[in-house]
Design goal:
By secondary structure, this protein is mainly α. The chain is built from 8 helices and no strands. The radius of gyration is 19 Å and the shape is globular.
């Protein structure tokens, strides 16, 4: 006889599959991303202003709406015409807010990239691992985490090999889905931090993803 949890899991799988089938391509990508491992870790982070682990009321409102596929900002004017990106006149704003979090103009993509990079840099030093910050240059968002990971390998593998380094692309989609190599690296980092701080690896891993994804969500909001 299946347990109650097993039956509930099966029902949720059927409902989720049905929801995916009825969703648009963009909504399907959002649903798959937010249900990926650790993507929702930011929700369970204990707020701390001193550590920068908090969201302002307006940031939290925007983040929750965007997370649920509800665009927090208008995409059309009073006369019904679509609003145009102020930095990229050939692009219109979409209802899911994808253009807002991926637009290469205005500097927001670079700020988000650098915020996550700096948090990883600080965490690596806490684990007593040597790390070097990359140059402050702009970053163009990838259509998917895997494609971006492959691009980073093509652009950096040879240079890292010359320096005796190992290139590990830390790629994450805007909704918090980390790519395979990044998840493996974060798992190893959590293991090292757990030993140094005498805590369970699972707790350290949840804390690590929570801090990173909260930073990501704040930059998106």
């Amino acid at each position: 006889m299946p347990s109650q949890k097993k039956l509930s899991d099966l029902m949720e799988e059927v409902q989720f599959s049905s929801l995916l089938e009825k969703s648009s391509l963009a909504d399907r990508a959002r649903l798959l991303s937010i249900t990926s491992p650790h993507a929702a870790a930011w929700i369970s982070v204990t707020p701390s202003v001193s550590q920068g682990l908090h969201l302002l009321p307006n940031e939290f409102q925007v983040a929750v709406q965007w997370w649920h596929g509800i665009n927090p900002s208008p995409t059309s004017s009073q006369d019904g015409s679509l609003l145009i990106c102020p930095f990229f006149p050939s692009s219109t704003l979409d209802t899911l807010g994808h253009h807002c979090v991926t637009c290469r103009c205005g500097g927001d993509v670079t700020k988000r990239h650098n915020a996550l990079r700096n948090m990883l840099y600080t965490t690596l030093h806490r684990a007593d691992l040597s790390a070097h910050l990359e140059d402050e240059v702009g970053r163009s968002p990838g259509a998917a985490a895997k494609a971006t990971e492959e691009r980073k390998h093509r652009n950096n593998d040879a240079k890292c090999e010359e320096l005796g380094w190992c290139c590990i692309p830390m790629v994450v989609e805007s909704y918090g889905c980390w790519d395979t190599e990044a998840r493996q690296a974060l798992s190893q980092l959590a293991s090292r931090l757990a030993v140094r701080t005498n805590t369970y690896k699972s707790q350290m891993l949840n804390s690590l993803y929570g801090r990173l994804n909260l930073t990501l969500i704040r930059c998106n909001a």
